[in-house]
Amino acid sequence: MKRRDLLKLSLAAGGLAAGNARAQPASACSVDGTPAQFVPKKAPDANPLQGELEKYPKCPYCGMDRKEHHRTRMLVQYGDDLVDGVCSIHCLSLSLGLNIDREPKDIWGPDYGSAEAPCPLFPVDRLIYLIGADLKHAMTRRSKHSFASSDRAKEFQVKHGGSLGRFDDALRESYLDMAGDVAVIRRNRAERRRRAAEQKKPG
Each residue of 1-10: pLDDT tens digit? Predict the structure, then answer.
């Protein structure tokens, strides 16, 4: 897959200024005020799958619990062995965009059709994606669930709709959905802050 070319095309089409938010080495931004989610703060990890939920419990981009969202979580290992454990393909898109000068070495996604908890992770090149089904997904209105079995993916498609594709298809659609998803997330979080403030007011 020409993933680097796909990323550049997606970022240009979506108008995301990733170049200005380019990730730096882990030691470069410890005290300069750069938002932590823009920089992998952990040490390089040559074996990220081993104990991945313990090592990467929270998504660095949105703060969501990856164990709670194990059916949508993803893991990316870059060529320098820096790793991002994220909650969803939405936040994976952020990681790939912000780390555009790092070439992904491996990317793993969950088998949504598995009965195991947590769902096992597989290399994304081996996964089938069901895009746009009426299934809930983390951080995006239009679901993009991955399956290790094409037959299982087709079973879900019959029940829940959507179209089948590969990882690159799901990643492209994630970038295309980014603006709308971010707007919804901001509205939802603003509403939660408003409700929290209302509850704190003296009765």
Answer: 455 555 554 4
pLDDT tens digit sequence for 118-157:
999 999 999 999 999 999 888 888 999 999 999 999 999 9
The Cα–Cα gap between 65 and 73 comes to: 9
| HEC letters along 105-140 | EEEEEECCCCCCCCCCEEEHHHCEEEECCCCCCCCC
Residues 172 and 178: their CA atoms lie apart, in Å, by: 10
Could you give the CA distance from residue 57 to residue 147 in angstroms, rounded to a whole number? 22
In a 10 Å sphere around its CB, with 0-12 CB exposed, 13-18 middle and 19+ buried, how is residue 160 labelled? middle
Strands of the 144-147 sheet, one edge to the other: 144-147, 128-131, 163-165
Question: Which segments of the chain does DSSP mark as H helices, in order?
Answer: 3-14, 52-55, 89-98, 150-160, 167-200
| Residue 147: strand pairing partners | 128
End-to-end CA separation in angstroms for the chain: 59
Q: Is the peptide bond before 118 cis (omega within 30 degrees of 0)?
A: yes
Please give the structure tokens belonging to residue 64. Answer: 């969501």
